[in-house]
Write a structure and sequence with these properties.
Layout (H helix, E strand, L loop, with lengths): L4 H8 L11 H17 L5 E5 L7 E5 L1 E3 L4 E2 L13 H13 L9 H4 L11 H5 L12 H5 L7 H10 L17 H12 L1
Antiparallel strand pairs: 1-2, 3-4
Helix pairs in contact: 3-8, 7-8
Length: about 190
C-alpha cells in the first residue's frame, strides 16, 4: 500500500487543496497565502514542498535558517528533524497493518531478514520503544559525521552490530534507536 500525500498531510494537520490544473505561479501564490499568517506571527520558518503528478517538486523557502546569523532558508536547506518523523513513521506502519501488508506482531526479520536482532524483535517493540536497540546517538557514525548519519542501510547495519541495551520487551527506552529499523521495515512491507 502507498500512502498518498494527502494522507500524510492529514496526519500532520496541514491539509489544503490545490487544483490539479494550477500553474506553478498560482501554486506559489496559494502557498504564500497559506504561510503568510504564520510568518507574520513568527510561528514558521522553513521550506514547503509541493509535489504533484510525478513532476518535479516546487520548493519554496521561507524565513531564516539561522536567526542568529540572519541566513535565509534556501530551496536546498538541510534540517536536523530528529524525533519529528516518529509519529509519521508510526502512522505509516499502522496504515500498512490496516492494509494487511504487515502486522505489528511480526518479527522484524520477516521484513528485514538481514537485521541481526530481527528474529528476537517485533515491529510493535520498535514502535513502543521496547526493542532494546542501541540509541542512534551512541553510534560511532553519528559523532564522526557531525549528525549526518548515513543511509538507512548503513545505520541499520550499525544498529544490528551494536549490542542490545536490554532484552526486547523487557524495558522501555525512548530515544531515536528504533526509528531507522521501523522505517526500513515499513518501506519493505509497503513497497
Amino acid at each position: 500500500m502507498r500512502m498518498d500525500l494527502w494522507q500524510v498531510l492529514a496526519v500532520s494537520g496541514l491539509v489544503f487543496a490545490i487544483p490539479a490544473v494550477a500553474t506553478e505561479r498560482s501554486i506559489t501564490d496559494r502557498v504564500d497565502a497559506i504561510v503568510a499568517p504564520y510568518l507574520e506571527a513568527s510561528d514558521f520558518m522553513g521550506v514547503v514542498g509541493v509535489h504533484r503528478d510525478g513532476g518535479e517538486a516546487l520548493v519554496l523557502p521561507y524565513g531564516l535558517a539561522s536567526v542568529e546569523l540572519k541566513v535565509p532558508h534556501r530551496r536546498d536547506s538541510v534540517f536536523m528533524i530528529g524525533s519529528v518523523s516518529k509519529q509519521f513513521t508510526v502512522a505509516a506502519v499502522l496504515a500498512l497493518e490496516e492494509a494487511g501488508a504487515l502486522s505489528t506482531a511480526d518479527s522484524v526479520a520477516k521484513h528485514l531478514p538481514e537485521f541481526p536482532h530481527g528474529s528476537e524483535t517485533t515491529i510493535e517493540q520498535l514502535l513502543t520503544h521496547t526493542a532494546g536497540l542501541a540509541d542512534i546517538y551512541s553510534l560511532e557514525r553519528f559523532g564522526a559525521s557531525g549528525g549526518r548519519v548515513g543511509t538507512f542501510e548503513e545505520v541499520l547495519g550499525d544498529l544490528g552490530r551494536a549490542e542490545l541495551t536490554f532484552s526486547p520487551g523487557s524495558a522501555l527506552s525512548v530515544g531515536f534507536q528504533p526509528n531507522r529499523a521501523r522505517t526500513s521495515a515499513g518501506q519493505r512491507a509497503g513497497g
